[in-house]
Amino acid sequence: MHILLTGSTGYIGRRLLPILVQSGHSVTCLVRDVRRFDLEDFDEEFMQNVQLVEVDLMDVESLDKLPKDIDAAYYFVHGMSTSYGSFTEVEKDMAINFAEYISTTQAKQIIYLSGISNDDELSAHLQSRKLTESYLKKSGVPVTVLRAAIIIGSGSASFEIIRDLVEKLPVMVAPKWIKTKCQPIAIRDVIYYLEAILLKEDSFNRIFDIGGPNILTYKEMMMQYAEVRNLNRSLFTIPLLTPRLSSYWLYFVTSTSYNLARSLVDSMHHDVVCEHKGINEIVPRELLSYKEALEKAFQKIAQSEVVSSWKDTLSGPIEKNFLDFVQVPTYGCLTDKRRYDFARNPREVIDNIWAIGDKRGWYYGTWLWKLRGFLDKLVGGVGLRRGRRDAKKLKAGDALDFWRVLLADRQNGRLLLYAEMKLPGEAWLEFQIKEKEGKNILIQNATFRPLGLWGRLYWYLVLPLHSFVFPGMAKGIISYQEKTV
Description:
alpha/beta, 7-stranded parallel sheet
């Protein structure tokens, strides 16, 4: 069958794509920027069954590029990366444009992954998801809606937020919404349902709530996480925390953005328990428990097999076409360039570059980087808590603390990062390994394009720190030796 897959570079789509191809389907991937697709992760035989089409759902004319001979379509699109409250209009426009396109095709089914929304009063986030269902139905093509609560898997937003809270806080003082009930589901069960329900006529024009076997409060989920990790944790509730204060609490403690934190907090006031049942009558499945889902997630993390992560969501000015920033500007820019010869095997130095950030740190003055991350959080930035998807692997599009990976050319020893922290301008950080006249050279270049007078003032204010942080980082990259047990 010919399948159209939206969100193929996102958390769910990136995991579903290989399953669809392995099942013998031909898949057209709708991507906003074809350069974000991880071609290096797939072999030539795999890509023979995959077609990439660059389309922006907000641009109606671009949808003319999409094929008409599709049998079914997966809709994994949302506007959560936009500012709080504005994603409703964004999601509406994208869903309407997509529905108009689908109505001109041969598609027999749209499969949409939504959120459980059974309460009469819903948060803006859940209300938007519910409205999207109605917009898709206007296409005239049968719609199958799978509604999930919290999805537990390596790299999922829910898992990573729970992980941040429990791992970092021995004693937690939490808002009253932690007593809200939820029915979490493992990512592998979600992927199974999405593939198994494909073109099942009994599922057409129906809504199914999907959830695992356990109904838990958020407090119970955090405490069971602590049990799985053999952590001793205490949790107390404070009823006085408003939604706004709760959002800031979640934002500062975890790696989530404020926009996502606010949307999640608003949604956490509602029980998200399965009511629209019946999917197991069509595609039977023995589901993983919450603890089993956690254990599977940690197995993937331990084996460095985190296929996709919500942290790869772009933010700031590079939200749409981040690879357009690969060409580092020179005009009107301020730079700090360091060059150091070294005698080590260049592959070892490249290994150090590729392991930078997160738990490894920044090789010199890591506490200053952490302080900068904390200050970034205070002004609404992403901070350092995002970490990285994999401890030693990097690819274009990855989040790396408060940087975004623009280019990761390991073969030629070049790593280019773009700053997603709050700045009065734009910043790039580049590492290159060169060989000249028999000498190996590490070139480290920080570029800043200031915005107005304040941008220039900012650069000169931090220049004294650059004078020892940047040389220390470059020398640390060259000299660092990983400890062996």
